[in-house]
Give the backbone structure.
Amino acid sequence: MEISDFVKKNKIIALSNFNVSEVNAVDCFVVRTRTLSDNISVREYLSKICSNDKRLEDSCKMVNENSDFLNRIVMHLSTTELLKLFLMEALLGKYKNIVLVNFDMYFMEKELLFFKKLFRKLVDKYDKSIVMFCDNVNFMFDLVDEMYLNTADRIYEFDGKDLYNKKIYKYLDKPKIVDFIEYLGNNGKVFDNYTEMKELLKAIYREV
């Protein structure tokens, strides 16, 4: 599968239920888990593409790290830290197209919210295009512009605002908020298009 077939300028595209081992990403930087055995600092690792201290420190902030991260030894980084390193590499290398492979699987919810804002900013303000392999609809809410769902019969295309489509949940786990909204609908209360439980509960309270 050629990733360039799904890249769309200044958009975030989600690919769900795809085999990531068959990815062919020409002209893209792929951020995915892999091990590094380099006994060098993050700064040294990134020096092949950037030696400017200010840009290096700014890239740390962009991935939710402070400048001390530059002194960490690459071979001792955790999985999430390595993903941050690869993302820094993509940003410093000025790649236009970034591919994220199951990025959401390795971070806690608080950091995922941070990265959702970052990815949206990269696309809206920094002229990036992102393709993300992701089966987590919670992470896609308020983030993706389009979603492609791979099934045995065909590949379905959905708009990013269409994540309540019941067809999706024949193949992916349904978020709790969608379950709850369906329950409310079955009891005569319509609350469509809420993606955060806190905001949904506020809406319900206003109706009481």
